[in-house]
């Protein structure tokens, strides 16, 4: 899915804006992104995005089976109770809760477009 090179990240957050634009056309908010650049000034803290782990931690802890695997993690929103167990289970910090709905916000690769990787000016995020 992704290759992340933390050392190349300049903290510009263009990836976050591209992600938001891909999912919410016309919106320009990093809060709605499914990728997260951690700010640990003066150093870059990290790039957090769903990098599907071998044991699919978020899927395995969901008590309602609201997360399924289909080339990436997919949320079945009608089953989700917004318990947040998936957020706690993610070993890379790639799952966050949507600030308005409370649903898990997980990368869906923009349906294979990888908007964040296409937008990253330094190559800190690229496709595998």
Give the tags:
single chain, 128 residues, alpha+beta, Alpha-Beta Plaits, 2 domains, two-stranded antiparallel sheet, 8 strands, 21% strand
Structure description:
With about 130 residues, this protein is an alpha+beta fold. It has two domains: about 1-50 and about 115-125, no CATH class; about 50-105, Alpha-Beta Plaits (2-Layer Sandwich). The protein has helices at about 15-25, 55-60, 85-90, 115-120; strands at about 1-5, 35-40, 45-50, 65-70, 75, 95, 105, 125. The strands form four sheets. It has a two-stranded antiparallel sheet. The longest helix has 10 residues, at about 15-25.
Number of domains: 2
How are the strands ordered across the major sheet? 1-8
The helix-and-strand class reads: alpha+beta
| N- and C-termini, Cα separation | 5 Å
Radius of gyration of CA atoms, rounded to a whole number: 14 Å
